[in-house]
Amino acid sequence: MSQPQIFRTVADMRAAVALWRGQGDKIALIPTMGALHAGHLSLVKFARENGFVRAIVTIFVNPTQFAANEDFGAYPRTFAADVDKLASIGVDGCFAPPPEEMYPPGFCTKVAPGGPALAGLEDRFRPDHFAGVAQVVAKLLNQAQADAACFGEKDFQQLAVIRRMARDLDIPTQIFGVPTMREADGLAMSSRNVYLSAEERRQAVLLSQVLQETAKAMRAGEDIPGLCAAAAQKIGAGGFALDYFEARHAESLAPVAALADGPIRLLVAARLGRTRLIDNLAV
Ligand code: AMP
């Protein structure tokens, strides 16, 4: 078990990146908000398998992507356990900046993502969320100047927003999307799953089940709007308050009416008690 180097400043992280690059190593950045689970660690594994021998995991609960009514204060913060997990898989570096390193006095520049950030999915329920995500990810990519950055398909719209932003702003870091890690019963791993009561945890599996069966029926040619309406009904009947269940084009996130309009991605967001869960699946 080798401990990751902990960087608190951009300068320290950049010095390590320059050193590793000088040694000929390729470097991947893995931005997270901490409360690490196997899904986050799978991003590190993916980076390694793709030739990035150095990995930096960033841990920063970014205030600008939370609305006033959301869980910024309550978001799980488990730094010591996170560092142990990173050590267990030999992660080289962990960038965990204090808020003032990211947003010093006078900071005032916003990033206004369009296109996939306005697809009418998460943005309908979290209108300022992707501006905050784009802002912090643009900063992290510029700060680290890594060769690649890995993001989970779990946050499918976020991944599309980041790909688009990196392209539009000529950020040279290569962006990778990594498949979702799931619990044994199919629930997508998430730091927010710790909010679920035992009863809610049992109910939560319904989301991935409905995604699976809907994707299967869609592949078999059943009517798309009808299938989405039925899925919404089942999720509501299972005790969730549904935000959306939609079939979208996997790249543009535009609505799709027929299988031939694909590749199709199913995306769902629903609340179980005080916990908001999101998931998605390829058709
Ligand atoms: P978060 O800490 O929730 O902001 O997530 C940090 C990164 O890990 C994002 O790119 C997420 O999409 C990714 N991620 C979160 N959960 C999973 C999962 N279950 N499988 C794969 N990647 C994930």
Automatic annotation (TrEMBL):
GO terms for cellular component: cytosol. Pfam families: Pantoate_ligase. It is an enzyme of class 6 (ligase). One of its GO terms (molecular function) is pantoate-beta-alanine ligase activity. Keywords: ATP-binding, Cytoplasm, Ligase, Nucleotide-binding, Pantothenate biosynthesis. It is found in: Cytoplasm. The keyword Repressor does not apply. SUPFAM superfamilies: Nucleotidylyl transferase (SSF52374). It catalyses: (R)-pantoate + beta-alanine + ATP = (R)-pantothenate + AMP + diphosphate + H(+). (R)-pantoate binds at residues 65, 158. GO terms for biological process: pantothenate biosynthetic process. The active site is at residue 40. Pathway: Cofactor biosynthesis; (R)-pantothenate biosynthesis; (R)-pantothenate from (R)-pantoate and beta-alanine: step 1/1. ATP binds at residues 33-40, 152-155, 189-192. Beta-alanine binds at residue 65. Its EC number is 6.3.2.1. Catalyzes the condensation of pantoate with beta-alanine in an ATP-dependent reaction via a pantoyl-adenylate intermediate. NCBIfam families: panC (TIGR00018). Belongs to the pantothenate synthetase family. Homodimer. The reaction proceeds by a bi uni uni bi ping pong mechanism. This is Pantothenate synthetase. The gene is panC.
